[in-house]
Amino acid sequence: MRFKWAADAYRQLNGVFCIYKPTELPISKVIEKIQWNLARDLNALPCYKYERLVDAAENSRPSGDGDDNDIGSRSLLVTNQPVVTTLPDIPDLSEHRLVLGPRYIGSDFEIWPVGPIPKHTSGVQVFGIGGGRQFLGFISRALYLRVYHVKGRFGWATDNFSPKGKIIERTTFHHITKPKLDRMCSIAQANHTKLMFKYAGVHEDSQEAYEYACKGLVRPANKDMSPMLYGVKCIDYNLPDFTLEIHAINETSNYFKSLIHDIGLNLKSTAVCTDIRRLRYGHFTLDHALLQKHWTLENILDNFRMCHKELHPNKLLIGANIEERGKDNKLLESEKDQKYLTSFVNK
């Protein structure tokens, strides 16, 4: 452990970090697990003044030859002469750990997610802790593009579009081919391309739409609008199973389940979504994500530095200057937000 005093480590728990959330684990349980790990690791360090005094006393104690000490102790027993010793100052035992209990508990760490993924979805999840909470607003309003691998299975349908729902229908699927599935993916992507320009208030075949697209990704006006798909591609096809790679903004897991169901119906069959996995959240990828076994104090502090590189204004503001994006897209809600962003990335 690089720290010798728990308070020094605790003061550094301010920033943004990224983990890989396993499936079947809700965000609330993920946060509880991280809080428990941080409390455990901090409590393993000296936490109280008593422990510091004890360490200082042990370090200042002169080292002697163990054999000489043994001889001296035996000689005292033989002579039975009284020996006067000066005891060092004994620290106040009311500050002992066994009296006060653990210095840190889980609720001492305030952790917030941005773009939380539901229980049955796995993948990249970004969190903020301490002062990093204020920075999550910038990430959320940036409307980062997210990348998913969505798995489906042809031949059956459930009442809630998930594999754990009640089966309501079984159908044949051997007539489905990969070219047919690719065509459905292209249609879904094309329909959403039309919606992008519709929401932007321009015609998709106009010069204005071309100039708008040249500026970069055409994003929704805000995070409350309907899901937008920027890419839908079949990357694995092995009947009855298939996998789609989907690039989206404002997406939800229920929307992906509904999309798989609709693709099955359009191919004269049925389909159910079997798995959803997020590979990327904007600039945060699987390379940034900590596995569950690495949700520890030292790894999270190291992850702060890795994620800090992705918080530069040029990345967060998609290459535009702060004032321009703040005026047009309301990314920066106030002058205070702008000052905070500048000071944060310059740390």
Protein model, in words:
This protein is α+β, with helices and mostly antiparallel strands and 347 residues long. The protein has 3 domains: 15-46 and 103-141 and 285-345, no CATH class; 49-100, no CATH class; 146-281, Pseudouridine synthase, CATH 3.30.2350.10. Helices cover 41% and strands 20% of the residues. It contains 13 helices and 10 strands. It has helices spanning 6-11, 27-43, 49-60, 66-79, 97-100, 132-141, 178-200, 207-214, 253-266, 297-308, 313-316, 322-328, 335-345; strands at 15-21, 111-114, 121-129, 146-154, 156-158, 167-170, 228-238, 241-249, 271-281, 284-285. The strands form 2 sheets. Strands 1, 2, 3, 4, 7, 8, 9 and 10 form an 8-stranded mixed beta sheet that branches. It is globular, with a radius of gyration of 29 Å. The two termini are 24 Å apart. Mean pLDDT is 81; it is low at 68-80, 83-87 and 319-334.
Radius of gyration: 29 Å
The H-level CATH homologous superfamily of the largest domain, spelled out, is Pseudouridine synthase
Overall, the morphology is globular
Number of structural units classed as domains = 3
| Helical segment count | 13
Share of residues in helices = 40-55%
Beta-strand fraction estimate: 15-25%
InterPro entries: PsdUridine_synth_cat_dom_sf, PsdUridine_synth_N, Trub2
Protein name: Pseudouridine synthase II N-terminal domain-containing protein
GO molecular function: pseudouridine synthase activity; RNA binding
Family: Belongs to the pseudouridine synthase TruB family.
